[in-house]
Amino acid sequence: MDRVFNFSAGPCTLPLEVLEEAKSDLLNYKGCGMSVMEMSHRSQMFQDIIDAAEADLRDLMQIPDNYTVLFLQGGGTLQFSMVPVNLLRNTRKADYILTGTWAKKACEEARKFGDIRVAASTEEERFTSVPKLNAGDFRSDADYVYITTNNTIYGTRYNYVPDTGGIVLAADQSSNFLSEVYNVEDFGLIYAGAQKNVGPAGVTIVIIRNDLIGYAPENTPLYLDYKIHAEKGSMYNTPPCFSIYMAGLTFQWLKRNGGIAAIEERNVRKAARLYETIDNSQLFSCPVQAEDRSRMNAVFTTGNDELNAKFVAEANEKGLVNLKGHRSVGGMRASIFNAMPEEGVDSLIHFMKEFERTNQ
Ligand code: PMP
């Protein structure tokens, strides 16, 4: 079977070039006689892999020297705990903005550790928009403000970075990491699980300003303290070696293709074409407010469950797979991460028009 266009929300499609490179390295990495999966994480060869991955990521995101890059495990979910454990360091207050399921989960977890306030939520409108907030909306003595820059399930994205008036901003960028240009200095901490724009599941990247490291309480379980990982270059314990290696290949792929600004341009184009198709259609609609629509996850529906199911099934037969929306939202969701080629989006658009013509 040929490769399909995979619209999964993660794990998801990876750049074909990256997969091919991994394939050619698989049995014998650079002539060392073994695969990266079999290599000691204490070997020079693996040290070179992780160092190159970090250097390429720093280069891509223009990460300043006063930020540390960590390659951790535990997914985005462990960051729901690590962020409050480490960043609730003075007043133990934090303000969360709820824009979807993942922000809510992060907020619930943080409540175990401090005085957590919901600064704003769009839940009443079923998370179909992102609130516009500024410094006056946050407690001025909060230790941090928390946002989810792209909401994978509801298909929304912050089209701005909130001005917190100097309060540390912590961002879950799991589903739009490396898809658009950000100024790292606008954030105290950024994290992202790998399994969308970076590589296979297994590694979570944390970018943290150095002055925020070292405040976890005494009784913090070792693994949950950013300090230990920072001191040991992400190798306090065995890191997810193969996922880090794959992340490194993706960073090189991005660099070869013009970096983040270039991929952002392509992402804007892909998303615009897809939303234009939805907006011009008599059959499909997108519930999300136009200015807050995600460039990574486009949700849409026919408004009819049976027809939605038919769409997903017929698309599947055409090699356009994983278009079913998240169970909490229903309808369809097309995840069009960095690695989804423009031809994939064009094929989907072609199929949507065909489906509309034959199902009116
Ligand atoms: N944050 C966001 C924005 C997500 O989309 C997800 C999962 N898709 C998570 C956090 C949770 O990540 P994980 O499954 O890696 O724990």
What are the key terms here?
360 residues; 9 helices; alpha/beta; 13 strands; single chain; binds 4'-deoxy-4'-aminopyridoxal-5'-phosphate
Give a verbal description of the structure.
The protein has helices at 16-25, 44-61, 75-87, 101-110, 226-231, 241-256, 259-279, 305-317, 342-358, and strands at residues 5-6, 67-72, 93-98, 115-121, 144-148, 150-151, 156-157, 169-172, 189-193, 204-209, 297-300, 320-321, 332-335. Helices cover 34% and strands 15% of the residues. Helix 1 crosses helix 6. It contains 9 helices and 13 strands. The protein is of the alpha/beta class and 360 residues long. The strands form 4 sheets. It has a 7-stranded mixed beta sheet. Strands 1-12 form a two-stranded parallel ribbon. The site of 4'-deoxy-4'-aminopyridoxal-5'-phosphate has 11 residues, from helix 3.
- Helix and strand pattern: EHHEHEHEEEEEEEHHHEHEEH
Unreliable runs, pLDDT <50, ≥5 residues?
none
Hetero groups in this structure are: 4'-deoxy-4'-aminopyridoxal-5'-phosphate
Mean pLDDT: 98
Shape: globular
What is the tally of helical segments?
Answer: 9
**Main sheet characteristics:** 7 strands, mixed
Structural class: alpha/beta
Strand content: 15-25%
- The gyration radius over C-alpha positions equals 21 Å
Q: Find the count of extended strands (DSSP E, 2+ residues).
A: 13
